[in-house]
Request: fold
Amino acid sequence: MASYILGLDAGNTVIKAILFDLSGRELAFAARDGRSSMPKPGHVERDLDELWRNSVSVIGQCIAEAGIDAGEIVAIGCAGHGNGLYALDRAGAPLIGIQSLDTRAVDIVAEWAEQNVGDRTYAHCLQRPWAAQTPTLLAWLKRFSPALFASIGTVFLCKDFVVNRLTGARSSDTSDMSGCGLLQMQDRRYEPDLLAAYGLGDCMDLLPPVLESADIAGHVSAEVAALTGLRAGTPVVAGLFDVVASAVGSGVTRTGAASVIAGTWSINQVITDKPIRDPSIFM
Reply:
């Protein structure tokens, strides 16, 4: 029996599905554009239900185009844009999707700069706050939209939401959570002092368990199998921040190698064997 791997990539604009055999040969590809909304100046959001509908659509299209038995798909992996804020409510339903193009929190960033908050966060995560960073957006909601903030049950990144819809799993991975400034870089764990620096000391329970990217986060549910044609029980890994996935997918894995990405965000990155403490470098 043949074996295949299904990949999903959820960017700020397009959701894509691609099917590979185990040698890395592409068999099928499908994509759908998503819509962003700007309910207020500086606010850039997406409808999470639409993101999921588009995910279901491209999965089905990809399987149909390849003409394979979906039971031969042995694993599914997801990548997605980093930062922003994809939140579920306390019942696990989609609540809000804020994209990484959002600028609503610029005043908080300026305020924190005057208070040297960046020095405190940098000591832990090697980043300083910026407007669409996940903890910055969470702090904005806490201050300016307290009712919505109080209803948050889980803080996700984009690909975590897709993994959750596929499996019901509540998880993220080290690449996304370190990339958004929520992990202490030295030991890749949540740190109470880091959350306190953002004014989020009471938010630890909102953060999902952090897995390694290749760890199995969960398995395709029976409900999702009926929607997509996937086999129930197919394993789904935790996945990757898309800029990291781009580097790995293009073979940039050894120390000193560089990756240049052009997209909604254009990212230049270099592989190191340990975190670099240099304020001019964004980790």
User: Anything to note?
Assistant: The radius of gyration is 19 Å. The domain at 4-270 is CATH 3.30.420.40 (Nucleotidyltransferase; domain 5). The mean pLDDT is 95. Residues 126 and 283 are 6 Å apart (CA to CA).
